[in-house]
Amino acid sequence: MISCPFCGGLQLARGGQRRKSCPYCGKRFKVSEARVRKRFEDSRSASNYIRRIKEELRRADSK
Ligand SMILES: [Zn+2]
Hints:
Elements: E1 2-3, E2 10-11, E3 19-21, E4 28-30, E5 35-36, H1 43-61
Antiparallel strand pairs: 1-2, 1-5, 3-4
């Protein structure tokens, strides 16, 4: 799990992937330059984590 160096958007990075374009701001960046937030052993726990964060963001928005 990395966060975009431009907008801070959380997203998954696959092992071996070197470059990525951010789904939030659309900018391209090197995965090695992004901040690693969390490491997961498998993709299922990673997507569960993302889903939880998105729900929290949605809840914060509706306030
Ligand atoms: Zn971004």
